[in-house]
Design goal:
This protein is mainly beta and 152 residues long. It contains one helix and ten strands; from the N terminus they run ββββββββββα. The radius of gyration is 18 Å and the shape is elongated. This is Cupin domain.
């Protein structure tokens, strides 16, 4: 597996972000503590090749991680679990998920929520685009300590 990126994520800039005086401001929240949102172009993020069949692009927020997976037919994410709640949205393709003695068939349009610490594995039966949101953010990705992906 490739180490985490040292490059900052690609932020969008003008004309995508412009001043809008007086808009989106709550007078009850001090401007000194209100953070500014960041706007990103997902497809401008670096592509990390996890294996010959799995690649990802992702961003970390303060409390969550957003990832776009590209899985080729035959890709497998082996049995694992993590402290994060995982929300999976299959936007293209299909896969089978095995968890707790059950088989779940996910197709384009399926939304699947995996609670924290629940063992699960993914088997991709078609070329698939899988969008995942993890909460809290994937600290194991930040630290580079995730160990269930293998180059194949």
């Amino acid at each position: 597996m490739t180490k985490e990126f040292s490059l900052a994520p690609s932020l969008l800039s003008p004309p995508d972000v412009t001043d809008a005086p007086g808009r989106g401001i709550d007078p009850n929240i001090s401007g000194h503590i209100a953070a500014l949102p960041n706007l990103y172009e997902l497809d401008a993020q670096p592509v990390e090749e996890m294996s010959a069949l799995i690649s990802r692009q992702y961003l970390h927020g303060a409390h969550s991680t957003f990832v776009k997976w590209r899985m080729k037919k035959g890709a497998i994410v082996p049995l694992h679990h993590h402290i994060n709640e995982q929300i999976t949205w299959i936007t293209e393709g299909a896969c089978e998920v095995y968890s707790q003695g059950k088989k779940y068939l996910l197709r384009a349009g399926s939304l699947f929520i995996i609670p924290p610490n629940v063992p699960h594995e993914f088997h991709f039966t078609e070329d698939t685009i899988d969008i995942d949101i993890f909460s809290p953010q994937r600290q194991d990705w930040i630290d580079g300590t995730v160990n269930y992906y293998a180059k194949k």
